Every structure is written in structure tokens, then in C-alpha cells.
């Protein structure tokens, strides 16, 4: 297995970053995860746009331009013969003696790129069954719109889900509204087949899969309402699901032990899942 670290393609076992890397010291880094399907990176331009936004918000320099970054991602995929799976990239503010203030401008950012094959049948079998979700109090900082590697609240929330036999945790804000999942966006479908998901302006990461699914739904003539919804509303929803680059569209069949849609994946979520790659593949040509 080969990975890319700061200008070099190296064997996984030999890859390393410095102990004074700000990613390690302060989680002073941002990342992206893209789905790879039939050897192609799904929605790469949207991932690059979000990466740029994360970097800008943190006043962090880009490690290279997007055309070069695209070449590196593709090269890592090729060297690992990944046709189906994911590619991960992380940028940190680089290596400097531990000090809260940003280092001097001439400190180069760290860039790490890895890729891994994932059997597409695995995701299909999870989606065919549907997943359980538990709610947890929102305890993250206000800048969850930035895709930083500071994910400890997400790790703890997902561990709580795992302990309860669930696959995802949905954060709930002080007013009882669901924000998003530990590593996914949250959606419900109303009795009238309206897709409801929280606006990306507050409390969530603007998921690339979320954006592409909104495109798809509207193209299919479905209504999408970007508004916050409560736990109570979600528990009585017709269908519910999550989106992310690694799960695409995956049905939620249980929320805090309340069955959704009779505890089985519903028809609309199934249709959205199967329609997703048609539009995503077309978008990434
Ligand atoms: N919210 C959070 C907190 C996430 O970690 C992710 C996955 N990166 C998402 C939403 C979904 O984003 P995307 O569709 O771009 O994978």
C-alpha cells in the first residue's frame, strides 16, 4: 500500500509526519473524503471547493493548486489499484515548535493522501437492511461548517451509538432540533414525500453528498425543504436517511428505539440511493 506524504509516494509502513506537526499538536488541519467508483472520484470539484473554503476560514495555505492535487489523488488511486473505495486527504498548518500562534508564512503545509478499496457490496448490504441511530446532545463548537480533523466529539458520539447497537449518532441542539450525524448529514421524509434536511447555514457541515442529492431530488421533481427538524418529528417520519461520501444514501430504520417507516427501508430512500450514482457519475465526467 502506497501513500502520499509531502511530495513523496511512500509505503504505508514507512509513512510519517513530524511530532511537532500542528495536525498532531492542535488538530490544526482540515480533510476531505471522496468516494471512488469505477476508478473515478465522485464530485471532486465540490470536494475541492469545500477544501478551499475550510482552508480560507482557517487562514491556512493550500499545499498546491487544485489541478496538481487532482493528479496526486489519481496517482494514489492508481498506485493502490483502487477502482471502488475512497480517497482521503488531509492538510495541516505544517511543522513548527509547539506554540499557539500560527507559525511564520514560510512554514509549508503538510499534505497527506491515502486511498483504500472498499467492496461496494458491503455498502449495499448495510443499505438493504437500514441502520439504527441514537441521539446525543450537541456538544461541538460553532464552526462545524469547517471540515477540521478535530473530531473528538464525533468519535465519542459514534462510540455511544456503537455501544447502543447503532451505527450513527445524531446530534441534537438545545432546542431539540437535530443538527447532523457524527459523520453524515441527517434527513427525513414527510408523509407528503417532502425531503427535509437542516439548512447548511448553521449547525452542520455542508455535505457534498447532501448538495448532490438536493440536485437529484429536484431534478426528479421531488420537493426539498431545507429546514431544521426535531427528534419528535423524525421519530414519526415516513422515512429517514443519512448522506455522506462513504454511505451515499443509507436508510435509517430506527431512532432511539422508535421504528421509522415500520422499521424497514422505504421506497423513496431506495430510489434516491439508486439514482444517486447516475447523476454523480454524470457530474464527474
Ligand atoms: N457531516 C459530518 C460531521 C461529516 O463528518 C460528514 C462526512 N464527511 C458529512 C456531514 C457528510 O459530508 P459528505 O457528504 O461531504 O461526505
Automatic annotation (TrEMBL):
Role: Acts on leucine, isoleucine and valine.
Record-listed E.C. numbers: 2.6.1.42
Cofactor: pyridoxal 5'-phosphate
CDD domains registered for this protein in UniProt: D-AAT_like
Family per similarity comment: Belongs to the class-IV pyridoxal-phosphate-dependent aminotransferase family.
Catalytic activity annotation: L-leucine + 2-oxoglutarate = 4-methyl-2-oxopentanoate + L-glutamate; L-isoleucine + 2-oxoglutarate = (S)-3-methyl-2-oxopentanoate + L-glutamate; L-valine + 2-oxoglutarate = 3-methyl-2-oxobutanoate + L-glutamate
Name recorded for this polypeptide: Probable branched-chain-amino-acid aminotransferase
Amino acid at each position: 500500500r502506497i501513500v502520499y506524504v509531502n511530495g513523496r509516494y511512500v509505503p504505508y509502513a514507512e509513512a510519517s509526519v513530524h511530532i511537532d506537526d500542528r495536525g498532531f499538536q492542535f488538530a490544526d488541519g482540515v480533510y476531505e473524503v471522496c468516494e471512488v467508483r469505477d476508478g473515478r472520484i465522485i464530485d471532486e470539484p465540490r470536494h475541492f471547493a469545500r477544501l478551499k473554503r475550510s482552508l480560507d476560514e482557517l487562514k491556512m495555505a493550500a499545499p498546491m493548486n487544485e489541478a496538481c492535487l487532482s493528479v496526486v489523488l489519481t496517482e494514489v488511486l492508481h498506485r493502490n489499484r483502487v477502482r471502488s473505495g475512497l480517497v482521503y486527504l488531509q492538510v495541516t498548518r505544517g511543522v513548527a515548535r509547539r506554540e499557539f500562534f500560527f507559525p511564520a508564512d514560510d512554514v509549508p503545509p503538510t499534505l497527506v493522501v491515502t486511498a483504500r478499496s472498499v467492496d461496494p457490496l458491503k455498502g449495499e448490504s448495510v443499505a438493504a437492511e437500514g441502520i439504527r441511530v441514537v441521539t446525543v446532545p450537541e456538544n461541538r463548537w460553532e464552526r462545524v461548517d469547517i471540515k477540521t480533523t478535530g473530531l473528538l466529539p464525533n468519535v465519542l458520539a459514534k462510540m455511544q451509538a456503537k455501544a447502543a447497537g447503532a451505527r450513527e449518532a445524531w446530534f441534537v441542539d438545545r432546542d431539540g432540533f437535530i443538527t447532523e450525524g457524527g459523520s453524515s448529514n441527517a434527513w427525513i421524509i414527510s408523509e407528503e414525500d417532502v425531503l427535509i434536511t437542516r439548512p447548511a447555514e448553521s449547525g452542520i457541515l455542508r455535505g457534498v453528498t447532501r448538495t448532490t442529492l438536493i440536485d437529484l431530488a429536484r431534478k426528479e421533481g421531488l420537493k426539498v425543504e431545507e429546514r431544521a427538524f426535531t427528534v419528535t418529528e423524525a421519530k414519526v417520519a415516513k422515512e429517514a436517511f443519512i448522506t455522506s461520501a462513504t454511505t451515499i444514501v443509507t436508510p435509517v430504520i430506527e431512532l432511539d428505539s422508535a421504528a421509522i417507516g415500520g422499521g424497514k427501508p422505504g421506497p423513496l430512500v431506495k430510489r434516491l440511493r439508486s439514482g444517486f450514482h447516475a447523476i454523480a457519475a454524470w457530474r464527474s465526467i
